Amino acid sequence: MPIAFNPSRGPTLGVEWELQLVDTHTRRLRQDARLVLDAIPELSESPRPKVMHELMQSQLEVITDVCHTVSEAVRDLKTTIERLRKVVDPHGMALACTGTHAISDWRDAVYAPVQRYTELVEEMQWLAWRIQTFGVHVHVGVRERDKVIPIVNALAAYLPHFLALTASSPYWGGQDTGLASSRAIVFGALPTAGPPQMLADWAEFEDYMDTLKRAGTIKSIKEVWWDIRPHPDFGTIEIRMFDGIPTPREVGMVTALSQCLVQQFDQQLDRGYRLPHPAPWVVRDNKWRATRYGLDAYVITDDHGSTAPMRDMLYELTRELAPVAERLGCPEELATIADVVEQGNSCERQRAILSGGGTLDDIVDATIIELAEDRFVTSNPRTSNGAIGHAGK
Fold this sequence. Notes:
Blueprint: E1 13-23, H1 33-39, H2 41-44, E2 51-53, E3 59-63, H3 70-88, E4 93-96, H4 115-124, H5 126-129, E5 135-141, H6 145-155, H7 159-166, E6 171-172, E7 175-176, H8 182-188, E8 193-194, H9 202-215, E9 225-226, E10 228-231, E11 236-243, H10 248-270, H11 280-293, E12 298-300, E13 307-309, H12 310-328, H13 331-343, H14 346-355, H15 360-373, E14 376-377, E15 387-388
Parallel strand pairs: 8-9
Antiparallel strand pairs: 1-3, 1-4, 1-5, 2-3, 5-11, 6-7, 10-11, 12-13, 14-15
């Protein structure tokens, strides 16, 4: 059955940022999303809500309007978050975002009272019970339907880049997992999650979705949770690979990276180029390498098994995309990649606090500060300001 794609006018943007509700006394997650949403009906009950439930009551999803620039999207998010703070502060809660919460136990989670989440839990059982994870999704508009699948395929080569920059979930239930991103494992266990299928064109995408429906694997296309997926209703490609991101500055970074890559591939198609089509085994292996090692990963660069350091590849990618970023008006946001490579992603910043004598509670405090003040914290916030790279510097 045909799947209609509503084309965008250009590389428009939409960002979804999944935030934690943290108890400021215990530092554990608070299962009080309903309380917050009831207090802001103007944002949560409109035809296009700005704040929504996610699977767990410890989580709120902040959503932008359709934006045209990265700076517009970040301003949109900040405005909504400021409104949320006025609600959560009097109730002894704070906002934070990392891929997993360092100390909370997933078994203490309470599910949101939403029918589709009830159905998901019933179907997936243990796989869904433990999804107390947090991420960021970036939508980038595409002008023509037939460009979508080639761009999705080309973007699959950048899954390790997306994850290495944002890896923020080394801890699970108070234990260091040894991974840069435990979220990638927890969420990736769902049967329709993981890297996108390497399909030939839109017609094959339609056939594949029909096959999944006939088999009873999915009821609708919305149940396909690939790391990168087409979103036909919005006319976008949705990049879902990012771990929870602690600061607005880093959200701007990945939004810029997403928009620049999609725009570059779109223009290359206009010029008659054939886009890269990485081998599925390379995509899977590289995702694992970023899951395990983050920015320290050595990723596969060709079908023959050549490798290169992720940090070097990110510097090179930033230089390559710089002209695109200038045209799109997001050079400063893209340049934040270099700051993260040099100063550490969230995973590295969290581990630095612990290795410097801090505790897991201190890590939670640091993530609260990072979101509130839009700065990186790499040392115990109780004994030092721990600041590196204030926003705008």
